[in-house]
């Protein structure tokens, strides 16, 4: 069996504030976790938690991953945008064209996200978090498909997407050009081996797929920090 995606982690300068923002936007419950972070617990088919981990590092550029939130109507899109703004979000300009109907926002720490138009066909069967939209190569899409055992649901013009067989968000990679990596990503995945699995065996398997072990100076209860073929950090936890 392959490892599981158990959490998407945010580095946060103010974890409680950022957690409250996303709990309000998503309608998820907040909970303390065992590693001095704050966790949001999904109430839908998302399949993974969202964790907020304290850091003193400031955000310096666009994130490699951002949320694409879905909407069901013009009014539903407006309500999501209004709720995000009321909670402390803001509109941002990342070069979107006037004719594009998605709305680009940032959370209180500048993490980008989009509220997608209601008739978007690619995310039509997805929940509120429609996609984790990522900057990345075709190779890294293939890597994550094998790493998680999630099938490719899109593979065209070097753009890729995968999705869990159990539903939840798609994870997409936009293909070239891939922005140069200038430092540690602000968001990363936490993976866990299957119950009663072998962490070292899973690390070895991921290395065989193209991952590498790295040291970012953060050590939590024996977790192993790794990077995918594009250099994006992720962690392999001890078996749950």
TrEMBL record:
InterPro entries: Glyas_Bleomycin-R_OHBP_Dase (IPR029068), Glyoxalase_6 (IPR041581), VOC_core (IPR037523)
CDD domains xref list: VOC
Superkingdom, natural source: Bacteria
Residue ranges of the region described as Disordered: 164-183
Coiled-coil residues: none
UniProt cross-references to Gene3D superfamilies, sorted A to Z: 2,3-Dihydroxybiphenyl 1,2-Dioxygenase, domain 1
Domain VOC: 4-118, 125-239
UniProt name for this protein: VOC family protein
Source organism per UniProt: Sphaerisporangium flaviroseum
């Amino acid at each position: 069996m392959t490892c599981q995606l158990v959490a998407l982690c945010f580095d946060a300068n103010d974890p409680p504030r950022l957690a409250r923002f996303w709990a309000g936007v998503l309608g998820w419950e907040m909970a303390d976790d065992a590693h001095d972070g704050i966790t949001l617990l999904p109430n839908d088919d998302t399949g993974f938690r969202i964790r907020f981990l304290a850091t003193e590092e400031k955000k310096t550029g666009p994130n490699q991953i951002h949320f694409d939130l879905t909407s069901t109507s013009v009014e539903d899109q407006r309500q999501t945008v209004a709720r995000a703004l009321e909670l402390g979000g803001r509109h941002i300009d990342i070069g979107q064209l006037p004719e594009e109907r998605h709305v680009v926002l940032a959370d209180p720490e500048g993490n980008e996200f989009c509220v997608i138009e209601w008739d978007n066909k690619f995310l039509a069967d997805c929940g509120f978090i429609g996609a984790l939209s990522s900057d990345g190569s075709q190779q890294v899409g293939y890597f994550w498909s094998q790493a998680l055992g999630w099938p490719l649901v899109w593979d065209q013009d070097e753009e890729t997407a995968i999705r869990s067989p159990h539903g939840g968000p798609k994870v997409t990679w936009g293909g070239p050009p891939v922005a140069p990596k200038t430092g540690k990503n602000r968001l990363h995945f936490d993976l866990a081996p299957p119950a009663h699995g072998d962490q070292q065996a899973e690390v070895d398997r991921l290395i065989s797929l193209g991952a590498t072990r790295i040291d970012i100076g953060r050590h939590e209860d024996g977790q192993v920090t790794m990077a995918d073929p594009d250099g994006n950090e992720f962690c392999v936890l001890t078996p749950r």
